[in-house]
Amino acid sequence: MGRVINKVKDKYGGRRGLIDYSLLFIVLFLVGFGLVMLYSTSSYEASMNYGKSWYFLERQLIFTLLGLGLMAVVSMIPYTLWKRFSVVFYMISIGLVMMVIPFGVEVNGAKRWIKFPLIPMRLQPAEVAKIGVIVLCAMIIERLGRKRISTFFGFASTMAPALLAGVLLWKVTDNLSSAIIVVAIAFGMIFVASPEYLRYVAMVGAGAAAAFLLVRYVVNSADTQSLDFRGERILAWLDPQAYAGGKGYQTIQSLYAIGSGGIFGKGLGQSMQKLGFIPEAQNDMIFSIICEELGLFGAISIMLMFVLLLWRFMMIANSADDFYGAMLVVGVFCHIAVQVILNISVVTNAIPNTGVTLPFISYGGSSVFFLLSEIGIVLSVARGLGKEELDKINAD
């Protein structure tokens, strides 16, 4: 393996650099904390349904270890390799999404996974599509340059792959939240790359206005029975108590958990809401259990760790050797930032329920596996920096 990686380094211009231990420590802390909270959150349900309290922890640990191994390998591969094969990787990710149609596996009423024969794992193509969009959009932005990216052609050229992936994720897998994340990643990369910010701020404002009008339409709809489940989620978001027996139940229980935690929480493992009150709390709602067991102090602490992670990404992007490496890091930054914001907003009922996991913390093998591969890409970009650059980042 080492010889192969060295040959790739020689061919694609990579060079041995230093490991960014600060970034690595933050990621390992988040992953370790996630495993602890996953066991604390899921042990009761695992005991009731599977006969062993460590069922979810065991499965997550396997994917985490595989992900850490992949992260180590990816971090040693020169990131310029992704530019050369970005179109191929993107097309593979789109092909995996399309494979859900004939080979998809339904879990909890959603057909979003692929089960491979003879392999004891399920793959969620949405996670691969996010990486595919990052590597391809970074290549497009790098080729267009800062001036052309500000034109309509540049904007449309960069957004097209993300929109295609987003539409397929929405229609093929019925996963609107992942579609929104994919489009947001590309938009965020363009926003950072473009020297003109006002037009993109105006676009965000227009999007917010459209969302407001959509909410008003749902609220004023005369026939609420004709609304789909997303319309019901909007109504439950505005008035959870009115839908306490249905779409508002999970939100109400989540808010109970957050409110009962106080400042320092009830103590690790002492949550009451995880005892069957919050359905599958180890997934999207794990942040509410963090608030209940570790309190406001624990919740703020974990949010600060995510802030440190994003700050580290920003420092690496600013010091990257080339524009493409910087855009790769910006893409990973946008992915994790959007997902963290959406998850915490849902748990606190700031936005309607979207079914977005908390990176590195929530249960999900595909999620943690491919998130760690993205960290490997960032570490690869950081390896291109010399000791002086890394020392400067650490000093900042």
Task: Compose a concise summary of this entry.
By secondary structure, the chain is mostly helical. Helix content is 71%, strand content 3%.
Give a structural overview.
Helices cover 71% and strands 3% of the residues. The chain has one domain (2-390). Strands 1-2-3 form a 3-stranded antiparallel β-sheet. By secondary structure, the chain is mainly alpha-helical. Mean pLDDT is 87; it is low at 8-15. The protein contains 16 helices and 3 strands. The chain has helices at 2-12, 21-50, 55-76, 80-84, 86-98, 100-103, 125-148, 152-173, 176-193, 198-219, 229-238, 249-261, 286-319, 323-347, 365-383, 387-395, and strands at 104-107, 110-115, 122-123. It is globular and about 55 Å long.
Shape: globular
For the terminal residues, how far apart are their CA atoms?
A: 35 Å
Number of helical segments with 4 or more residues: 16
SS class = mainly alpha
Low-pLDDT windows of residues: 8-15
Strand content: under 5%
What layout of secondary structure does this protein have?
Layout: H1 2-12, H2 21-50, H3 55-76, H4 80-84, H5 86-98, H6 100-103, E1 104-107, E2 110-115, E3 122-123, H7 125-148, H8 152-173, H9 176-193, H10 198-219, H11 229-238, H12 249-261, H13 286-319, H14 323-347, H15 365-383, H16 387-395
Antiparallel strand pairs: 1-2, 2-3
Helix pairs in contact: 2-3, 2-13, 2-15, 3-15, 5-7, 5-8, 7-8, 7-9, 7-14, 8-9, 9-14, 12-13, 13-14, 14-15
